[in-house]
Specification:
The chain is mainly beta and 639 residues long. The protein has a four-stranded antiparallel beta sheet with strand order 1-38-37-36, with no helix packed on it. The chain has a four-stranded antiparallel beta sheet with strand order 2-3-4-5, with no helix packed on it.
Length: 639
Amino acid sequence: MRAPIWLAALAALALPMAAHAQDAGEGVFNSRCKACHEPNIDRAPSKAALATYPVATIVDALTNGVMKPMAAGLSDADKQAVAAYLTAARPAQTAAAAPAGRAPPAPVGVDVKCAANPPISATVGDWTSVGFDPTSHRYQPKPGLTAADVPKLKVKWSFAMSGGSMPTVIGDWLFITNRSGKFYALDAATGCVRWVVEGAVSRTTPMIVKSEVSPSGWLTVIGERNRTARAFDAATGKELWRSPQLDANPVAGITGTPVIFGDQVFVPTTSGEEGAARQASYACCSFRGSLAALDLRTGAIRWQTSVIPEPLRQTHKNSAGTMMQGPAGGAIWSAPSVDAKRGLVYVATGDSYTDVDTKGADAIFAIDVRTGKVRWSNQVTEADNFIVGCNQANKPANCPSPDGPDFDFGASPVLFHLSSGKDILLSGQKSGVAFGMDPDTGKTLWSRRVGSGSSLGGIEWGMAADAKRLYVANADTVNLLDEALRKVGREAVAGGLPPAKPGLSALDPATGQVLWSVPAPVAPCHYAGDRSRDRGGGGCMRAQSQAPSAMPGVVFSGTMDGWFRAYDAATGKVVWADSTTERTYDTVNQVKGQPGGSLDGLGAAIAGGRVYVMSGFNGAANTGGNGTNVLLAYSVDGK
């Protein structure tokens, strides 16, 4: 059937208009964005990754978020143009063709609703918070499957989304947020949609608790990019409250998952000021990481504690004449951990952004749960002063002196009860060093290097612990090209550190002694639709940055090359492995041919006999896929 003449004429007119908008957007990108995003430097997402973002997300980042300083002077039309330019190259996906005699399938990415939504019912095998328990062990004692079942795991269902987080599971309900702004409740067994909330841009893991605050008796809380926390009825998705903005700085946000404990919600803040400070006109820097305690009933702020104790002050003018300020930094990238016995909440902080001294960066803090008073803090790296681009030949005007190594803490502290009857607080840093500290005083009891560390290496997003061992993944970056160079002797080891050797280690929590250490296997690198990456492209990094997750006898851990593996907890032997990128997926929400990608971020949730993990773009070191994540649900034999 031919289209009407007027429609064809309108389409013909639209083509040059769209081309003009893209040309304008390319100019804006080249002048304002290219230096950081093509190729991407440090934590800045690549141009390919930006292409997967919703247009509204890009425009919001330029208008209200982390990119606002770089967008100074741009018109609304300029911002729309650069967003249109970036997203124009988004890979097309098509819905599956309908079998003969049946109705055509719903459009691509359609949320297929469940036929019915039963009441939420808790089970002994639920995983309801990012760390599994208040002490952040990431250990599931009753997974609903055994170690003998693990080698039989196969994908049961998949669900495509942009920038998805780690899910949580209670009974036959699964909850997950993503950066495109859709907060989903899914059927944990099938992936159909129970409800969806639009406009909730988040990368945090929803926490689920039983609470009389919610009409259904079940409540969930998430943290949003716009510096607010929101509570919902977990059974219906109805909003219960929205907190005030927790930071006035437009480049601030929430990355660490809010944690509910008693009648309070602990919400950490982070920022993108390291990137914003690349602009010479930016008055670097003023953000200060903080932990807020919200009232579970209302979302009101009970207390909020900054981790930078020193007063903010002006320091000097940079080469562009912009007045600098500090100290700043101390972003809290991970979820807090709670010590009920001591009445403390522990947080781990990131680096400093200026060369004004502070004790608040690269530190572990113990904060009183009721008052917000700092009980103790332990800074493990001094003068780690970092902003994006300072390791480049053409340094930004705002670079601190000296430059720091960017050794943030990105993993939640783990409170561990030893067989001696004592407790120890375990933490891991991007320096590649794990620490054991006294939870009463903060004194360092031991430290153990498991990797060489770097700005995107070392211990990244988390650790796991069972009753005997601490499991630590090392994200030191090695790709296939690195391997080839080493084979011909082109290897340099700087500062006396070992060469980058990503992998997984088990430590004795009492002493830090290495019980076993297994390098990330060298395996074929599969990226569906992009075979060039098999030849040693940057996508084939074996960095093991994803937070491990454990169950009796098994530790799950993923690598940036898309491999998801299970290790024997006692020996480190790989007992099962699956390349999430060697195939594409026809998803529950009717996306055909969805590719997988890197395994990064907050790792797997193990619940109800299934293992759930996100494959695809998750963070600054994204590799593979098309930037859109795919949530994979594994079960025994895929049943």
